[in-house]
Each structure stands twice: as C-alpha cells, then as structure tokens.
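Data's thin. Show one?
=====
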Amino acid sequence: MKHQPILIISLAFFSVITGYLLSAISLVGRAGISLFYTQYQFLKTWWQG
C-alpha cells in the first residue's frame, strides 16, 4: 500500500498526456476515425479516450 499514491499520481499524469495527444489529433486522423473506424468514435473526444 506504500506505492499506491505513486501509482495514482503516475496514472493521472499519463491520462493527462493521453488526453492532450488525443485532443491534438489531426484533421485527417479525425476524418479517418469518422469514416473507417466507427468503433473508435470515443477517440474523437479527448476525455473519453
């Protein structure tokens, strides 16, 4: 249980980075997700990815 705060902080850090990277997806990437990968529609909103 000593490592739990470190784990929570690292998960929060990586989720913020992932959210930023998903929010910076290009127009071509968004079009590809919309047209071809309909099961990945959640990637269009950064907080769901």
